[in-house]
Amino acid sequence: MAAGHGHQNPRFPAEKERAKPAERRLSSGGASFSGRNGEAAVANRRVMVRCLLAVLGASPLTLAGFAQSGGGAPSDQGARTKAAGVRTLLAYVGAASKPATEEAARLYERKTGVKVELLFGGSGYVLSQMKLAKQGDVYFPGSSDYMEKAKRDGDVFVETEKVLVYLVPAINVQRGNPQNIRTLKDLTRPGVKVAIANPEGVCVGAYAVEIVEREFTAEEKEAFRRNLINYTESCEKTAAAISLKMADAVIGWSVFEHWDPERIETVRLPKEQVPRIGYLPVAVSKFTKDRAAAQAFIDFLAGPEGRAVFARYHYFATVDDAAAWIGEDKPVGGEYRVPGEWIRK
């Protein structure tokens, strides 16, 4: 998990801190694979990467994206030319923005002809995958925590970061709230099935732990942990735990309700229990081969058309909108160090 628990500016996010050819060739260490021996090498590479992605907690969608490129990362990223002549960008995306980002990418392709391949997962997991592959054009995590890490580690161009929209943590339950969950303390009741995202690699999981550590006594925390049925691998899977009735409640984002309004309902946390406002930052990856094309996609997301897509899914457009929903101002962004007891060995 990202180190430190800081809010560089308690009111404003990071954006205020800075006034192939048709035939694809897979290479490793400069050597290309071809012929029977090359096919065997590619197959072996595919197996190794699948195993590694399984350890990292990659989603099936992410795994499929890697497999399509021969078992490594998708090849020749950055506005590259594919067999059909389609220019393509690769974005590593935290799943907190999944439905809106998918729609925005489709709109961008129709508008510009540039296809954006989206690899979703926990923000920490996709960052690890981008670093491992040393490829990709855009990094788009689900909150500030992993963007701060990416900036420290030199994985993105800091000056390209833009904050798109804002997020507020909440309790999500099944539509109709059959377990009558009204407060955070209700998640400690015997028999209530609770899930949170894995706090080691998923931003909203770190928010969940932060809330539990702040609000629960040692006894309540132990009761909460007894009710935990699972760690999920991404925001998408956290919301799905409610949609599929695998859990009675999750600590997630308020927008989850708008991803599946027929099955998910939001229970607001009292304003004093919301530690901070999250946001969705996006930046150009240091691994891009076409910085201008990557920047153009980010500019689209941050422009009127992109923001309109996020508005349809009820993301908060401004800090003030998020604060009004909570009922008071809160620190924005920052990082949280997850205590070791929450990290699975």
Could you walk me through the main structural features you see in this protein, from its secondary elements to its overall organization?
With 345 residues, the protein is an alpha/beta fold. 38% of the residues lie in helices and 18% in strands. It has two domains: 76-166 and 277-326, Periplasmic binding protein-like II (D-Maltodextrin-Binding Protein, domain 2, 3-Layer(aba) Sandwich); 169-273, Periplasmic binding protein-like II (D-Maltodextrin-Binding Protein, domain 2). It has helices at 35-56, 60-68, 98-112, 123-133, 144-152, 203-215, 218-227, 235-243, 256-259, 291-302, 304-312, 319-326; strands at residues 27-28, 31-32, 80-81, 87-94, 115-121, 138-140, 162-167, 169-174, 194-197, 228-232, 249-253, 264-267, 278-284. The strands form three sheets. Strands 3, 4, 5, 6, 7 and 13 form a six-stranded mixed beta sheet that branches. Helix 3 packs antiparallel against helix 11.
Short précis:
The protein folds into two domains: 76-166 and 277-326, Periplasmic binding protein-like II (D-Maltodextrin-Binding Protein, domain 2); 169-273, Periplasmic binding protein-like II (D-Maltodextrin-Binding Protein, domain 2), CATH 3.40.190.10.
Structure characteristics:
D-Maltodextrin-Binding Protein, domain 2; alpha/beta; six-stranded mixed beta sheet; disordered N terminus; five-stranded mixed beta sheet; 345 residues
List the topology elements.
Blueprint lengths: L26 E2 L2 E2 L2 H22 L3 H9 L11 E2 L5 E8 L3 H15 L2 E7 L1 H11 L4 E3 L3 H9 L9 E6 L1 E6 L19 E4 L5 H13 L2 H10 E5 L2 H9 L5 E5 L2 H4 L4 E4 L10 E7 L6 H12 L1 H9 L6 H8 L19
Helix pairs in contact: 3-11
